[in-house]
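Holo prediction — zinc ion.
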Amino acid sequence: MRFEISKVLDAIEHRLSMDPVLAGAILDIGELLRAQELDGGRPLYLPRVGTVIDALAVKLDDAAVPVYAVAERGLLSSLELTSNEKMVLRRWADDGLIEVLSDVEPGRRLIELHAITGLPVVSRNPLPVAMAYAPVPGIGGVALIDRQGAAPVRADRPGVVPPQAVLARRWRCPEGEPVPVPLLLTTGHPTCPRHGQPLGDDGARPQAMAVTVWVKGAAKTRFPVDPLRPVVVGRAPAQGVMLGPWLDEEALQWVSRAHVELSAGPDGLVVRDLSTNGTVVQKSNGQKAELSRDQTAVVGEQDVVELHQGVELARAGRRPAKAAPASSGIMAEAPTIALRLPRP
Ligand SMILES: [Zn+2]
């Protein structure tokens, strides 16, 4: 049992990101691990968050979608969690995978994060945001239902920069860690959510694009590409996104160790072929561009880069055609962690 719980927590870990370009939704870990009505299990149970992330993957039809998760600082030492759960939460916090909140009620921060990033909020509580999903017990797990929010609270005030503007800069806490999305609601100025200190401006933030890896119709991972960070993708690149573990024998033969490089240019996402066997860009207008080594092509928002049949890269939000059902998610890591659903 313990082994399987740690597998579930590892699987959740792979789906946490404080990069608003990569994340598909915002949620509060403390709220969701207490959502006992979702499964009838322990009152506080960290793996429960995995069932909600699985539900988001089904909702968005993207098994690799990460979440931007916040956690109240007190949760990291809560007596109601197991020592393993607390240790894992502290590790996530220290690795910059979750946002720790010191003096702000998480619900208020979710509203602010929504205003800054535009991402939907997953919450049982009716929050004044334009887009929210409420987790409810579903067949074999948790389901998310749309909750039409009230008109979002306008955080704009005369003479105050709109909240989204903070995403154009990079911010750093005096304690040293980068802060992807500053807290504004306490002082009106960019502040560290964890330490409450004013943030330093680290310069302009390059505009990033999220790319999803699809293998046989299942989303495997998302990664960012920005003008400062070209990314190599292949079977086993020295540095970059490694596809090897997801490929079958035939694809392993076909896909080069370093197959393509993705970069962000003035025209958008650009792919450069580095491979032996070539790369195909399926354009949204039905045409295709075949690239051989060192040839490049612009990848439009709706285009799909094919490294081999069924091994595809696409902008996040674009699902390649001919897709198979999504893979089975976090809780598939631990089939014996039974969900005890309330009887209807
Ligand atoms: Zn800090």
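READOUT: Residues 173, 175, 177, 192, 194-195, 197 surround zinc ion (CB under 6 Å).
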